[in-house]
User: What shape does this take?
Amino acid sequence: MTEPSVSENVVPQKQPTHPMDSWLRQDRLPHIWCPGCGIGIAFSATIAAIKESDFPREKISIVSGIGCSSRAAGYLNIDSFHTTHGRAIPFATGLKLANPDLKVFLFAGDGDLFSIGGNHFIHAARRNMDLTIICINNYIYGMTGGQFSPGTPMGAMSSTSPYGNQDTPFNLPHLAEAAGAAFVARWTTAHVRQLKKAISTAFQKRGFTFVEVISPCPTVYGRRNKQPFGIQMMKTLLETSQINHNARGHEWDILLDKPVVLGNFIDRERETFVERQKAFQEHMETYLSEKEIKGGTYGD
Assistant: This one.
């Protein structure tokens, strides 16, 4: 009679799981994000904020457009929509209007949201559509060849501005404020705790909420601007940023030779589009009912 081998007596150990594993579509991994990219940090902060919220998973939906950041919709294990370029907000608006009980948020980049999608952004903010926008601003079109974007600082190098960008970039938080957003914040991927807290606040807030996330892109932006390593760019974000919750809109401009101002800038109450539509519908139902009782016509 032979003795059992040592390997036969070993009890298989259960593989350790990450706290966020259940929130990820494991069949879609590994992700496409480059080493040193900050999108994964922002993505993790978003998941952490969702986990701390009171929304059940079946009541949350993510919508994204096209680009490096927008791949997040394919990785998150909830109802998700990976839509066409620049059209994430119209898709999200339709989703919210069709099912007002859903918590709908967007995870997309500065190019998708503010170039081809810019018109949708300002009108959704104007209406105070009940959406949360998480915008990854890495100063560049990362996926399509490194062209300068609406968020590229003046003077920065890109594939389409080899001698320095001459276009004035959008001041994204100021634009959101001016258009009517209920909550506006800006943080970097080097300020993870503040970023998570801001996203959590945006999630809990009624109306159109906006969080800009300044994120390193060493592969496409950094190597053209003498910062080819992610850790180098993260260090720069820490050293050249300044937290000031009370700063005014014109102070939020991003300039290469000045500190980037961070903070939770705007937090105000406004009636949402869904609330106005509900009140209007109730008013019209009462109006039409009274007209029918009196025997009048709808045009009276």
The first helix runs from residue 6 to 9. The mean pLDDT is 92.
